[in-house]
Amino acid sequence: MKYLDEFADPDLAARLLDRIHAVTTRPWAIMEVCGGQTHSIIRHGIDQLLPAGIEMIHGPGCPVCVTPLEVIDKALEIAARPDVIFCSFGDMLRVPGSDRDLFRVKSEGGDVRVVYSPLDALTLARDNPDREVVFFGIGFETTAPANAMTVYQARRLGVRNFSLLVSHVLVPPAIAAIMESPSCRVQAFLGAGHVCSVMGTAEYPPLAQRYRVPIVVTGFEPLDILEGIRRAVVQLEAGRYEVENAYRRAVPAEGNPAAKAMLQEVFEVTDRAWRGIGVIARSGWRLAPAFAEFDAERRFAVQDIHTAESSVCRSGEVLQGLLKPHECAAFGRECTPRNPLGATMVSSEGACAAYHRYRRLELTRV
Amino acid sequence: MSEVNGRNGAPVDLAAWSCPLPLRDSPTVVMGHGGGGALSAELVEHLFLPAFGPVGELRDSAVVDVGTARVAFSTDSYVVRPLFFPGGSIGDLAVNGTVNDLAMSGAQPLYLSTAFILEEGTALADLGRVAEALGAAARAAGVRLVTGDTKVVDAGHGDGVYVNTAGLGLVGPGVDIRPGRARPGDVVLVSGDLGRHGVAVLSCREGLEFGTAVESDTAPLHGLVAAMLDTGADVHVLRDPTRGGLAASLNEIATTAGVGIEIVERQVPVPPEVADACAILGLDPFYVANEGRLVAVVPPVDADRVLAVMRGHPHGSGAAVIGRVTAEHPAMVVARTGLGATRVVDLPVGEQLPRIC
Predict the structure, then answer these.
(1) Is B340 on the interface with A (CB under 8 A)?
(2) B315 and B274 assigned to the same domain
(3) How far apart are CA A337 and CA A359, in angstroms?
(4) Please, which pLDDT band fits residue B21 given cuts at 50, 70 and 90?
(5) How does strand B187-190 pair with strand B320-326?
(6) How many CB atoms lie within 10 A of CB B204?
(7) Domain that holds residue B254
(8) What is the mean pLDDT of residues B281-305?
(9) Of the residues B123, B151, B175, which one is the last residue of a structural domain?
């Protein structure tokens, strides 16, 4: 596979950093939307190398982190049923619900399986016609097309023992919600490259104009991120607020028309609660009425969910960029990747986990 | 609060444990307890050791005096799924894994025991292939299978074939290889590129099948170790980075010896196909298991000579210097990133989880 080494080339990175230093005359606060970008920034130490005034604010784009507690608790209920094979992406297994996680359910006898593609869950359903197979369909626009395709295929093939527990979230309403927040400090965004490779870039110019904020669609390798930051700073210094695409090798302006058509058929827009943030209007997808029979929430009619968030976890402020992970009193003490109090400490894309994993050296020196 | 029966049947009060990272209050075993990371270490430290009493420095194999001989003794259980994977099988692992645990004490492995736990209904043809692989691996390693046992459990209560092997070997005079001997200034080497075994196994695991040409690196390493010791070098530490990968091995060395370790990311050899698979799955190659690689910590004066001998050996041809031991940041492993920044290389918690996107 090309692009791994090439887009981490240290000489090219040094040249991009020089150019960022050269154009920066004032402090700027830039939010990277996507958790994959957060992980890359912290893992490679990119924020250590930027000009002192450039602050990276870590955004809410970690799908594991923002999946609402109520949905996690429903997943735990469904996964514990003896007739169910519960399939999930790997990093959902350790996300804490109100009183346990999917690993615990598995250790107590639940049939919980990690799959890499939701279509594998559909195969499992066909291979196990006497069991109910449920896939935990979460994530942003990036993971949604494969989940939509799986439901579409389930209906086409008549696989009645398959269903989707769906909690999809959308990036543009989150950007609007962050900019509407009275405490917002964000002056520019690095757009989530893979979200845009599905959806295209057309949703973003109205946001850039309305909030007078530059949005640079950015990739995930070190050079991608540095180039995204450079373009954002150039715009900020010039007082411009436009949408730029710095990830053209993966993002055509129109996105992926086939994927968008599939999404439009299978899902419909809905209000959605974001864990740690609250309800954002029209910020998610649920199954459209034509596919309602594949909705795990309807099929299992999970009742009596009483959610209980940790009282000390401040992941909501972290997700909104109001608090750096290590500024939380529980960081590294009560709350560690071993014993996460909030979802941001679980996924490798969560800001708290990234700081804990890669940054303790500097944090202990402070 | 849950309780676990400890020594003499007396309850161990989990609430009274003094570890700064208390065991998550799970009343049951979770998969991470077997992952070779922090959860495994806690289980040993807080549940097994208090019940067992003192065992000395924890290492891959114990070195005990029997009469005038210094005997290395080790055991390991193999529960790999699937039983056969690109480049090897559970039979190869069961021999090479225990041989390597002995070799990491500098021992010449001699004898192995083999115990099978079989699930009712397992095809005898499969068991035959496992046995053939085990015998062939033992012959290749020059060790003898001298005793064994077979048990069968009800269908549904096992995963086809589990294998346990225990091994004995002899440690030469003057050889003292253990994690506690790492000293500031020492040089850290690996014997070859990393991540092949873990990626090969993942590539054929149910639900994660993906096409890759990567084969397991499973191999017996005692010949390589003997060649390294024959140089006269004072090898301080040897570890085989199996579960938990390079990161777990380096963290164990740093913690046991009370030293820091600094590695340079770009000097750690990772095959491109492993890097690709890890990038797709969201895994870090430093945490992926190896079954035919070792980490060596040697004094700087011996480093060049040991590296040259490793590179001349079939199981060490890809050897490389990856970093050094330092007095700074004790018990912490730090990597210099490709861009020149630094990051912590943490002890894995439990299992590595394929990422969502």
Answers:
(1) yes
(2) yes
(3) 13
(4) very low
(5) antiparallel
(6) 15
(7) 179-344
(8) 94
(9) B175
As to burial, measured by CB atoms within 10 angstroms (0-12 exposed, 13-18 middle, 19+ buried), residue A221 is buried
Cα separation, A277 vs A122, in Å, equals 32
Domain co-membership, B340 together with B212 = yes
Give a yes or no: residue B282 inside a domain. yes
For residues B114 and B187, membership in a common domain is answered with: no
CATH assignment at residue B126: 3.30.1330.10
Is residue B74 located within the same domain as residue B184? no
- Condensed to tens digits (0 to 9), the pLDDT of residues A143-177 reads 999 999 999 999 999 999 999 999 999 999 999 99
- Nearest CA-CA distance, residue A365 and chain B, Å: 10
Contacts of A306-313 with CB under 8 Å at 24 or more apart are: A306/A98, A307/A69, A307/A70, A307/A73, A307/A98, A308/A98, A308/A99, A309/A69, A309/A98, A309/A342, A310/A96, A310/A335, A310/A341, A310/A342, A312/A341, A313/A276, A313/A341, A313/A342
pLDDT tens readout for residues B123-172: 999 999 999 999 999 999 999 999 999 999 999 888 899 999 999 999 99
Task: Using a CB–CB cutoff of 8 Å, tell me whether A10 touches chain B.
Answer: yes
Residues of B in contact with A107 (CB under 8 A): 26, 28-31
Chain B contacts in chain A segment 78-117 (CB below 8 A): 87, 89-94, 103-104, 106-108, 113-116
**Residue B302 domain flag:** yes
Which of B29, B349, B357 is opposite residue A337, by nearest beta carbon?
A: B349
Same domain, B333 and B220: yes
Q: Is residue B44 part of a domain?
A: no
- Spatial neighbors of A23 by CB under 8 A, at least 6 apart, are A230, A233, A234, A237
Within a 10 A sphere around the Cβ of B112, how many other Cβ atoms? 27
3-state SS, one letter per residue, for chain B: CCEEECHHHCEEEHHHCCCCCCCCCCCCCCHHHHCCCHHHHHHHHHHHHHHHCCCCCCCCCEEEEECCEEEEEEEEEECCCCCEECCEEHHHHHHHHHHHHHHCCCEEEEEEEEEEEEECCCCHHHHHHHHHHHHHHHHHHCCEEEEEEEEEECCCCCCCEEEEEEEEEEECCCCCCCHHHCCCCCEEEECCCCCHHHHHHHCCCCCCCCCCCCCCCCCCCHHHHHHHHHCCCCCCEEECCCCCHHHHHHHHHHHHHCCEEEEEHHHCCCCHHHHHHHHHHCCCHHHCCCCCCCEEEECHHHHHHHHHHHHCCCCCCCCEEEEEEECCCCCCEEEECCCCCEEECCCCCCCCCCCCC
The verdict on B102 and B127 lying in the same domain is yes
Distance from CA of B50 to the nearest CA of A (A): 22
Model confidence at A306: pLDDT above 80: no
Asked, for residue B160, whether it belongs to a domain, the answer is: yes
> What burial letters (b/e) apply to A131-141, b meaning 16+ CB within 10 Å?
bbbbbbbbbbb
Q: Do B212 and B340 reside in the same domain of the chain?
A: yes
> What pLDDT band is residue B26 in, cutting at 50, 70 and 90?
low
Q: Which residues of chain A have a CB within 8 Å of the CB of B334?
A: 361
Count how many domains chain B has: 2
CATH of the domain at B315: 3.90.650.10
ipTM of the complex: 0.75
- Pick the last residue of a domain from B175, B197, B214: B175
Q: What is the pLDDT of residue A356?
A: 87
Q: Are A101 and A338 in contact (CB under 8 A)?
A: no
Q: Are residues B194 and B339 in the same domain?
A: yes
Q: Does A42 contact B at CB distance below 8 Å?
A: yes
Q: Scanning every residue of chain A, which has its alpha carbon at the shortest distance from the alpha carbon of B279? A: A4
Chain A residue at shortest CA distance from B283: A348
